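I am writing to request your help with a piece of structural work I have in hand. I set the record out below, with my sincere thanks for your time.
___
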Amino acid sequence: MVRHKYSQTVKPAIDANVFVAAIKEVTIAKKSLRSVGSAYKIDKSKLARYISSLMEANIDPTTTSNEKLVDFVSNLLKRTGGKKIFSVEQEDELVQYLLRASKMYYGLSICEFSKLVYEFAMKCNIEYPVEWDIHGKASWDWYNAFMHRHPNLSLRTPEQISANRTKAFSKANVDAFFVNLDHVMFQKNIKYEPHRIWNMDETGCPTVPTKAVRVITLKGERRVGQKTSAERGTNVSLAFAVSAAGQSIPPFYIFPRKNMQSTFMDNALPGAMGVANESGWMTAQEFVKYLAHFIKHSKASKDSPILLLLDNHTSHLSLEAIQMAIDNGITMLSFPPHCSHRLQPLDVSVFGPFKKMFHNMCQVWMKNNIGKTLELRHIAPIADKCLEASATPKNIRSGFRAAGIQPFNPNVFSAEDYEAAELMETNLTSADADAINLEVPSPSTMPSTSTIPNTSAAPIQHILQEVGPLKHSAPIKKSNRGRKSMGSTILTSEVNVANLRRKSDEKKAKDSQNKENQKNKAAKALPSKRGRPRKSSVVMTIQNMSDSEDEDFCIICKGVMPKKLNRNNSIHCNTCDRPVHLKCANLTAGYYTCIHCESD
C-alpha cells in the first residue's frame, strides 16, 4: 500500500459557509465553475466534486436549508485521502475519549490508541483493512490520516504527576486557598500591589543532569553515550523568589558541605548568597537565613508590608522564621499540599524552562572543558545564567496570571481540571461497563469486511468504555496512618502563631521530662548481692548510645562500617584516609578519592 505523504506546510482552512455560497452560485445562479472558483479562491475540480457529492446524497441546494448544507460540506471538508473507515460521529467520539483520558492524566500512546481503534472497529462491525488483523491494531497510515483530519490533536511528552498531586488538586483545596488569599488581599486594611506580592520556592541543581539531550550520531547505532561528571550527581538547592510585577531577588544557594567555601560562589550574580549544610536541603536554620536575605532585597517592613506565598514544607513553619516575618511586615500564606504544580507561579512558568536550560548548559560546559569534572563551584555561575534567561518579567507575570493570583481570579480553573481528583476520590467500580457485557469477537471468528456498520447494539460511548484501556478499580480504603496533611494556612495569623508556641512549649516540657526520668532511673540502680553494681536498662541504653556514636559511617550510603576493616569490605581515601564501603566506591581506577577531597 502506497503511503500518503502529507505536506508539512499548513494550508489555509476553507470556511464551509464560503463553500456553500460557491455551490449556490453554480447550481442556482448557473455560473461557470471556473469563474466561481476564481472568485471564491476554490479549485474548480474540488468544487465540482462537492456538487457531485450533493447530487449523490439527493440534496438539492435550491430547496435544502443553509444549515443542512453547511453541515454536509463540513463533513466533506474533514475527509483526508481515501475511503474513511469510521463515520464523523464515531471519530468525534474517539477524539473526546482521547481528550478525556488526557485530562485525567491517563493519556494514550500511539500503540494504545491503535489497539483501541482496532477493537472499536471490530465491536462496531465496521469494514477495515485486512492488515489490521495481522498486527492487532490500526495501521500507521490510518493514524497519520486521523491526526491530519483533527489538527487540534498533537503528540506531546507528558509531565509526570504523582498520585498525591492528582488527588490533592481538588476543588475543595483550591477554593480554601483562594478564600485565604481573598481574606489577606481584600478583607484587611492593607492593599498589596503587584510589586508587593511575592512567591518563594526551592529547586535542585544537580552536578549530573537527570535528562540527556538528543545528539546527532550514525543512523542505526545501538548504543549512544554521553559523558557525565560522575555516576551520581551532587544536588545543590536553589531558593528563588519572584513578584507579581515581574521582579526577582538574587538567588540563595545551599551546598551539601559541612563548611562553606568562598570558591562555591565565584563568578555568581551580585547579591547572591550561599550557605552550606550536610544535606544540601532547606532546613529551618537555613530558611531563617534566607528570610533575612529576602527582607534585605525586597525592602520588607511594617511600613511597606509584603505578601509571601510559599509551600508548607516543615522548614518554613519554624516559630523563629514566622516571628521574623511578623516583625518585618511579611504575611506568609501557604499553598495546599501537593498543589504547587498548578498554583505556584514559579512551578508554573519559571522552573520548567530553567531546569531544561540548566541541563543543556551543563552539557555545554562539559563539551567546552573536556577532561574536567563539573564541581560545586561551577553550579552558581551556570544557574545564574539560566535564571537570567528563564526568569524574565514576561514569564513571571504569566505564572501569576495562570495561577489566578494576580489578577485575582478564583475561577481560573474549570471543572475539567478537577476531573482527575474526583476520579481518585470516588474510584468506584464502573456499573455501566459491567451492565453492557458485550463480548469482543476475536479476529478469527469475525470477518474483517462488512458493508453495513452496526452501532445500534449499544451507544458508541459504552463501546469505547468497554474496549478502552481506562478501567475503574475497586474502592480504596482510607488509611489513618501518618500525620494529617496541612491545608492552605495563613502562617503569620495569630491562631497559627499561638498553635506553634503551644506545640513548642509542649515539646520542651516533654524533652525535659524525659531527661529527668532518665536521670532518676540511673540514680535508682541498686548494687547486687555480690557487691557489684547492677546494670539497669537505662545504663545499658546509654552505653549502647555511646557505642553507636563511636561507630564509623560510610559517607556515600550513610551505613555503618564493619568493625573489622579489610580490603574485601572497605577502601580508604588516598587523601584523608577515611574508609567507605568497597561496593559504594564504584572504583574506576586503582585508588579512591572521596567526594569531600575531590571538591577541595
Q: What stands out?
A: The radius of gyration is 33 Å. The beta strands are 197-206, 235-243, 252-256, 273-277, 306-310, 330-334, 570-572, 579-581.
